[in-house]
Amino acid sequence: MKFNPTSLIQPNDKPLDIRKDHIFKAVFTTEAPESRGALSNLVSTLIGKDIKIETIWANEEPVRDQGDRKLRYDINCRAKDGERINVEMSFDPKPYEPVRLEYHTGRLFTSQEISGEKDYNDLKRTFQISILAQHKFFADKEFFHTFEYFDPVHGVSLNGRTKIITLELIKVKKLDEKLIEDMNLPELWAFFFQNLTDESKRDKINKIIKRTGGIAMASQVLMSISRNEEECMRLLGEEKYLLDRQSELAYERKQGKREERQEILKMIKQGLSVEELERELLEA
Questions:
Q1: 201 and 60 within one domain
Q2: Residue 130 main-chain phi, psi, to 5 deg
Q3: 261, 257, 258, 259: which is closest to 277 by C-alpha?
Q4: Cβ-based neighbour number of residue 171 at 10 Å
């Protein structure tokens, strides 16, 4: 696809933060050729194999245009050869994220039908791709990991058909001084995600956009949204909803803890012994 200069970020542009879950989904789930091309390029880069995304199953139908875009939580897609792939950006992943990824990978893999004429050998490879914007989950300094089943004692792979792929963007800072020419594709994508809104790195970001077709397509879609005031307001409204809901849940948790403490104080004032208090709490 021919390079489109509108994908470049101009001095007065204020690009939306693609690390925000809903912005990421907005960029990669339209049926525009640039959106689908960017998603195929990103997935191919992280899997290490040329992948063409054929079908997208988001939590609702993929959007037809900017005005049709709604809130969704991940991008569930199928490649041309049938491989199942789930892609998500998590701006604020929780401490249990690795277990969550393992759980959803299992569900995605076992969602395939093997009834009738099919057997286990007909199961397609399944990939869970998670881009983690904040927090460090793995002890090493590498930002890019691919996990699969293997025997850690003897170093033998199960040769299974599921993989979990993660990008920890918090570890990308080491790329600040690395020349673009020396970066591989996963590094270019990770640097783009992490530093897109950093004005001090804008020149480097634009050079990456010019150099990498998939990133250029993603930037073109993102900037068309960022320069559209109505669409920006729509997405900011979605972000407001997410923040409001998060705040409500936090408030409810605090309220529950407050009521629990008040109940404990009430039982103490009633003269309950430690044993009686423990029994009451365990039975609650």
A1: yes
A2: -130, 125
A3: 261
A4: 19
45-62 confidence digits (pLDDT tens) = 999 999 888 888 755 444
- Secondary structure (3-state) at 112: coil
Structure tokens that stand for 262 in this block: 């008040």
Same domain membership, residue 234 and residue 207: no
- Domain count for the chain, please give it: 2
pLDDT per residue over 109-142, tens digit each? 999 988 888 999 999 999 999 999 999 999 999 9
CB atoms within 10 A of CB 115: 6
Q: Answer for the pair 186, 10: CB distance below 8 angstroms, yes or no.
A: no
Please tell me the distance from the alpha carbon of residue 27 to that of residue 214, in angstroms, as a whole number. Answer: 12
Q: Do 147 and 79 sit in the same domain of this protein?
A: yes
Token pair of 99 as six digits? 């277990």
Residue 90 pairs with which residues in a beta bridge? Answer: 132
